[in-house]
Amino acid sequence: MSHKTEAFAALAKTMIKNLKKRNMEGFYFENSADCTKAIMDSMPQGSVISWGGSETIKETGLAEAVKNGSYELIDRSAAKNPEEARQLYAKTVLADYYLMSSNAITIDGELINIDGNGNRVACLIQGPAHVIVVVGMNKIVTDVESGVARVRNMASPANAIRLSRNLPCAATGHCNNCLSPECFCNQIVVTRRSGHAGRIRVYLVAEDLGY
Q1: pLDDT tens for residues 104-114?
Q2: Which one, of 156, 84, 144, 154, lies nearest residue 115 by Cα?
Q3: Which residues, in sequence order, are CB contacts of 185 under 8 Å at separation 6+?
Q4: Which terminus, N or C, of the chain has the lesser number of Cβ atoms within 10 Å?
Q5: What are 119's strand-pairing partners?
Q6: Which residues contact 23 (CB under 8 A, 6 or more apart)?
Q7: What is the pLDDT of residue 81?
C-alpha cells in the first residue's frame, strides 16, 4: 500500500463515520473492480435498476456490469422523444436501486450536486428504494462552499465540452454564472442527511473518477 493509498484509507474511515452520523452508509475501496463487485453482490437478481447521467458509473465498469446482469434496467438514454423520457422517469422513481455519483462530497459527509433537469437529484432525495453513490476520492472537498466551487469550475466546464453545449464555461474553462438557455447548472442540492437510515450508500474509491 502506497503512502497516498494509506492516506486515502484514513480519510475514508473518517468520512464513513461522518456519513453514519448523517444516516448514510459508507464504504471504501482501493479500486473500481472491487467496488463494482461489492455493489453487484448487494443487488439481488431481478431488481429494477436505473441511473442518472454519470461518467463515474461508466468508468468504474458498473454500468456495463448491470447491463450484462439479470436485472430490469430503466435506461433514460433509450427514450426516443421527450414523452418517452418522461414515462421512463416515472418508472425510475419506483426503482429498487438508483445508481449515481456525486459532483462533490465533503469530509464531513455532505453530498453536493448540481443538475440540469433535476431528475438525478430528485431521485437522490426521494423515490427509489436504495440509492448507490459512487465517488472517486478526487471529488472530496473540505466544505459545501468548496464543493459548489469545484462543481462549477471543474465539473461543469468539462461536462459542457463533453455534451457540446454552447456555454461560456466551455469556452473559458470556468463558471461564468450564466443564465444561458443551454445551462445545466439549474438545481443545486446539498444532502446533509438522509431521512431514511441506510437508503443512501456511498462508495468511496481511491481513483480519479468522473469530473
Answers
A1: 999 999 999 99
A2: 156
A3: 114, 116, 151, 152, 156, 175
A4: N
A5: none
A6: 193, 194, 195, 196, 197, 198, 199, 200
A7: 87
* Cα 206 from chain centroid (whole Å): 15
**Does the pLDDT at position 35 exceed 70?**
yes
Give the other-Cβ count within 10 Å of 37's Cβ: 14
Asked if 53 contacts 211 with a C-beta cutoff of 8 angstroms, the reply is: no
Residue 207: how many CB atoms within 10 A of its CB? 18
pLDDT category of residue 1 using cuts at 50, 70 and 90: low
Tens digit of each residue's pLDDT (9 = 90 or more) over 128-167: 999 999 999 999 999 999 999 999 999 999 999 998 999 9
Pairing of strands 111-115, 104-106: antiparallel
Chain-centroid distance of CA 124 in Å reads 9
**92: its cell numbers:** 425510475
| Mean pLDDT of the 1-17 span | 89
* Type of residue found at 180: S
